Amino acid sequence: MRGDFSVHMIVKNEEQWVWYALASVIQDATQLFIYDTGSKDKTVEIIKTFPQNKIIFEQKGEVTQKQLVELRQEQLLRTKTSWFLLLDGDEVWPKNTLIKFQQKIFHADKKKVGVVFKTRVCLGDIFHYQEEEAGRYEIGGHKGHLNIRGYKKTKNYRWHGIYPNEVYVDEYGVPLQDSKDKLIFVNDYYWHLTHLQRSSVTKNPKRKLEIGFEVNPHTIPEVFYHKKPAIVPSPWIKYSSSEYIIASILTPIRKIKRKFFS
After folding, report:
1. What residues does each domain of the chain span?
2. CATH T-level topology, domain 6-261
3. For 50, what's the count of Cα atoms within 13 Å in the CB-facing half-sphere?
4. Over the stretch 25-52, which tens digit does the pLDDT of each residue have?
């Protein structure tokens, strides 16, 4: 048995990966709340290629970092399912990982409020990823490339703070990530493409030139191989020759810094 869930997404200039992100979850989600906050690339056009029967899509225009968190709270209040999945425009889910999420929330006891996943942080292309030691997130006593992506809707929790440091807090203001007993940990990955190019109209400040480890091809999200609308960019992007040379030089330096200075 699998639990029902909604999807919460807020995007801006995410044309490179947003189709793959949505396509990886839309069949399983009960409803999707998608807000665009002023995209100037093809993000909006790409979102509109999906059937709209499940999607509540609204263009909110430019927002402040505080207003973005208010939009998260608005999506929370509009949600009718017990659980929701927080989805960014650069996050893509393998089918098996999504199934495990649905199974976990279906069988979760009442005190559980969040589901934590590992992340494959891609470097250069979707076939290479960053070493686990580079992950700096600390959640419920765990550290690495991981994130809370599943949340339970409950009257005791709300979104608080200013983007990108917003937190899901209880009635006492305690962030969910500090409550280990309320978390479910899943030893499986979703793909996070934050270090790759994400739009044709903006530079990605998080883009990183680094040589990663090779991904097991059997774990790559199936959606990358699906037929897509012509407007959707190819997922098979790679470093240019000059970028690869720079990445080759920077990689050992970064690994030394992570090992001895972090």
Report:
1. 6-261
2. Spore Coat Polysaccharide Biosynthesis Protein SpsA; Chain A (3.90.550)
3. 23
4. 999 999 999 999 999 999 999 999 999 9
